[in-house]
Amino acid sequence: MKKRVMVVDDSRLVRVQLQDALAGTDYEVAAYCRSGEDAVAQYDSVNPDLVTMDIIMPGMDGIDAAEMILKEHPEARIVMISSLAYEDTFERARKIGARGFVDKPFYQEQLLKVFGEALG
């Protein structure tokens, strides 16, 4: 059975790239959310195995959204995907409980490695 991934990113291009990268793997995209607010609202109904979370989005940013999801669902596995590859961003994401971090642009092997670590 494939692992269900909820993709949270306001970029249509990134959503397509993730869909392509996950094609033919043990992962399937279960839902797309364009904002942090949308991710928080949909998490319960989607019940994903893993969430990919962009950081910079209109409205609620990805770290705040991840923090809200993790407060309600401490077992949630969230991987941050962002072009903001700064150490303070990594540290803030780790402190709230993110399970991994992938830099944009990403490639399939990198995604699958981080996903495996997050779920392991």
Polypeptide structure, described:
The chain has helices spanning 12-22, 36-46, 62-72, 87-96, 108-119; strands at 3-8, 27-33, 50-53, 78-82, 100-103. With 120 residues, the protein is of the alpha/beta class. It has a 5-stranded parallel sheet, sandwiched between helices. Helix 4 (87-96) links the parallel strand 4 (78-82) and strand 5 (100-103). Helix 2 (36-46) runs parallel beside helix 3.
For the termini, the CA-CA separation is 16 Å
What overall geometry do the principal axes of the alpha carbons give? Answer: globular
User: What is the percentage of strand-forming residues?
Assistant: 15-25%
The value of Rg in angstroms is 13 Å
Indicate the multimeric state: single chain
Structural class: alpha/beta
Fraction of residues in helix: 40-55%
User: For the report, how would you describe the main beta sheet?
Assistant: 5 strands, parallel
Strand order of the largest sheet: 2-1-3-4-5
Question: Which sequence of SSEs, written as H and E, runs from N to C?
Answer: EHEHEHEHEH
The total of beta strands comes to 5
Ranges where pLDDT stays below 50 over 5 or more residues in a row are: none
Q: Look at the structure and give the mean pLDDT.
A: 94
Count of alpha and pi helical runs:
5
